[in-house]
Amino acid sequence: MTALLSVDGASVAQPLEPLADVLTGADNPYRVLQWLRRSPSARLLGRLAHDPGALTHESLDALSQRAATAYVRGLLVTASILPGRDENLALLTHWVARRVAELPALHARLIRPFAEWHIIRDARRRSARGRYTYAAYKGDCGNVLAAIDFLNWLDAQHLSLRRLQQPHLDAWAVDRPTLRSRTIPFLRWSTARRLCPPDLAIEHPVSQFPGHFQAEDEARNELLRCFNDTSLPLDVRVTAALVRLYALPLTRIVELTEDHISRAQEHTYLSVNQHPFVLPPKLARLIDDQLRQSAPRHSTTAAPRYILPGQSPGRPRNPLGLADTLRHHGLPARAARNTAMVGALTDLPPMVIADLFGIHPRTAERWATLVGENWSEYLSSLT
After folding, report:
1. Whole-angstrom Cα distance, residue 45 to residue 189?
2. Could you give the angle at the alpha carbon of 224 between the alpha carbons of 223 and 229, nearest 5°?
3. Which of 22, 108, 258, 301 has the most crowded Cβ, counting Cβ within 10 A?
4. How far apart are CA 345 and CA 363, in angstroms?
5. CA distance between the termini of the chain
6. Region 51-79 average pLDDT
């Protein structure tokens, strides 16, 4: 330990003493020794120990952003050597900087202010409220990419923003149906700054009723499998059950921490938004088991106790990888979540669903409308 975290091999570098305390106080010292001997993260940490001035977020940002870098950053944050920061917001700011640097100068003069003054500024506001998730980061990247693609399309059409007309936008929407909604923020930003003619609009596509659902027996059998199949990994059982019982998206599930769980008398409660609701006893036990099993390798009181921790200390599981894991075990999320949402809306009003499950009220209302207009027809198609 001393050899890894020291400059002279005799004593731990003073800035790294809190980390040494964390590592030596781990519940399983053999796992720590194995990590010290074999992990690329440990080797990177050893290099940083020779230059204590490099123990900053900025220095780590300048390194190749690999798994080892993310792990060391998380370890330094959880040991209180580095201050905590919103890593999703940091991902966005660095991604934008890299993308803008690759653009032609003419495009960069438009994309940089759009990304920095509109996308990143809004992301900072959401981060300040504690609501900037990994999914939000991916969505913001998608909006910037759509703006870049739109400018490339204008070039191919020998057009500019100032010469843009509504028929051009209509053609774009037809040519790029998957990007039409993503282009709206850039168009609104450009219009507000008089970079293009006023009164141009891209209409949001009409909301479509989701096409993937489960039959009642299939949904029930999968939920029972989550509760009773001990051959499944615990994280899969917990995640799949939360999807099937409460229609929670994976992006929300991975953000759940031990603080979202509370107990009173004989019941265990989960608070996704503001109002706690009672968990079935089997699911409560599964979550307790998952929390015990996923105890951090390098324990520290500063680290958030995510129910589904990621590879890096203090970070949650990646929802994209989690979705792949669920599919691998035959418990995909999309159809199950759609079915659970319909089931919830048959029992509770949309506003109650929004409060309990943490979705936007307009989303709940749209689901209720879609269910009322289309669900009976869908059910008849299954018989």
Report:
1. 43
2. 110
3. 22
4. 12
5. 66
6. 83
The 3-state secondary structure of 50-113 reads CCHHHCCHHHHHCCCCCHHHHHHHHHHHHCCCCCCCCHHHHHHHHHHHHHHHCCCHHHHHHHHH
DSSP summary character for residue 311 = S
Q: How far apart are CA 17 and CA 2, in angstroms?
A: 10
pLDDT at 205: 64
CA distance 194 to 34: 60
Question: Looking at the whole model, is its pTM more than 0.70?
Answer: yes
Give the pLDDT score at 315: 84
Between the ranges 2-16, 252-266, 317-331, 369-383, where is the mean pLDDT highest?
317-331
Q: In sequence order, what DSSP letters do the residues of 232-254 get, joined into one string?
A: S-HHHHHHHHHHHHH---HHHHT
* Helix orientation angle between 40-49 and 29-38, rounded to the nearest 10 degrees: 80
Sorted by where each begins, the domain ranges of the chain are 14-78, 87-192, 216-382
Q: What number of CA atoms fall less than 13 Å from residue 272's CA on the CB side?
A: 24
Regarding the domain delimited by 216-382, which CATH topology (the fold level of the hierarchy) does it fall under? hpI Integrase; Chain A (1.10.443)
The CA distance from 264 to 261, in Å, is 10
pLDDT band at 297 (very low <50, low <70, confident <90, very high): low
